[in-house]
Specification:
The chain is mainly beta. The chain has 1 helix and 4 strands.
């Protein structure tokens, strides 16, 4: 189930900014604050092992360049 709430406008492109909650392919709850053009203020992946996240982003200034979500119905 995907849940979205309008939170204002993007400071980069003025597109609507949404607070999103969805479930990824692995069953983790993913909460993001982003505009529909892919500019992310933050992303929180719940129920994921911290060790895997730390090793994946070690030494990277901004590990998330763009993430897209879609509904399969």
């Amino acid at each position: 189930m995907k849940h979205m709430e309008l939170q204002g406008n993007c400071h980069r492109c003025q597109a609507p900014v949404f607070l999103n909650q969805t479930t990824d392919w692995y069953g983790n709850t993913v909460v993001t604050l982003n505009c529909w053009n892919g500019h992310y203020a933050w992303i929180d992946i719940q129920d994921i092992e911290e060790i895997a996240v730390e090793s994946a982003v070690a030494g990277k200034e901004n590990p998330v360049a763009h993430i897209g979500f879609f509904d399969m119905k």
